[in-house]
Every structure is written in structure tokens, then in C-alpha cells.
């Protein structure tokens, strides 16, 4: 049985990283979760930083993301938000969603706002995307490499190589994970 992870908005923002995280969930090794609120945050930043993306394209991407992973959306967590105490109150919704769906890990590149001692009491752990993917490589490098290959194969309009995709992932913060994949 796969374990449950909540992907925070900041790891869903970079295109290639988002693609890899979704493909890891599709592989069955993890059950990915997010909320509409997490997606709202991600799409707000994506739209602001890429004004060339039409609302229609953003809506299409959202639909594709929600359709890519079975049972991905967490709902009914809102009443838990007030009970969560974090350095940044704006991140409480992520922990509340993790509690609601019984996640073991929150994948975020904003670790300072998810203190280990606070999460430990809730049987939760926050991991950077790099550490999370590295954890997936350790027992099953072939599956992670296959996910990267799927990304390469999906790039029809803008062809890419494995090295291109690994470089994009590295630029998204997967430094140790890409090094491990290059050496596998």
C-alpha cells in the first residue's frame, strides 16, 4: 500500500517538478493529495508570473492535474485549520489537509514554516521535494527513472532528452535526486 503525501503549492509550481511528482503518484508508490486551496495558491503565482498564460490554459491545467491522480482532492479539512499552530498561519491549511487525509509526509520546499517538532506530534513530517524524490529513488530507482523517461516521451512540441529533463529538475531544486538518477 502506498503512503499518503500532501504536495504543497511551491512544489507543484515548477512545470517539470510538478510533472514528476504527479507521475510518481501515478506509479502507485505514493498517494498524492492536495486541496483546491493549494491549487488556488499555485495558480495565483503561476498566473502572476506568466501573464501570457490565459485563464483557459490555467483552467485546463487544473483539470488535467485533478484528473491525473485518483482521489487527489482533500475536502472537509477546513474545520481543522484553527487547531494548527505554525510560524506562518497561512500554511495551516496544508497541515489541516494532511491531518484530514492521514498523510505521513508534506512535500514542501518551505521547511522553515513546518517545524519538525510541531509536525511530529501529529505523526507528520515535512520533506523537501529533493529529499522526497531521493526517498523514492532509494528503494526503486527504476520507477523514478521511468517517470523521467515518460516526461521526455511526452515532450512532442519541444523535444527533450533525459539530460534536459534532469537539468530542469535540478534547477527546480532536485540537486541530490538528479545526481542519484544520473548515477543509477
Structure characterization notes:
The chain is α/β, with parallel strands linked by helices and 184 residues long. It folds into 2 domains: 3-129, Rossmann fold; 132-182, no CATH class. The chain is built from 9 helices and 4 strands. It has helices spanning 9-12, 15-26, 36-49, 55-68, 92-100, 116-120, 129-154, 162-171, 175-182, and strands at residues 3-7, 30-33, 105-107, 125-127. It has a 4-stranded parallel beta sheet. β3 (105-107), α6 (116-120) and β4 (125-127) form a beta-alpha-beta unit. α2 crosses α7, α7 (129-154) packs across α9 and α8 runs antiparallel to α9 (175-182). It is globular. The mean pLDDT is 95.
Largest sheet: 4 strands, parallel
As laid out across the biggest beta sheet, the strand order is 2-1-3-4
Distance between the termini: 25 Å
What class would the helix/strand composition place it in?
alpha/beta
The shape is: globular
Name of the top-level CATH class of the largest domain: Alpha Beta
**Count of alpha and pi helical runs:** 9
Helix content: 55-70%
Order of helices and strands: EHHEHHHEHEHHH
- Spans of at least 5 consecutive residues whose pLDDT stays below 50 are none
Q: What is the H level of CATH, i.e. the homologous superfamily of the largest domain?
A: 5'-nuclease
Mean pLDDT score: 95
Quaternary structure type:
single chain
Which fold name is given in CATH as the topology of the largest domain? Rossmann fold
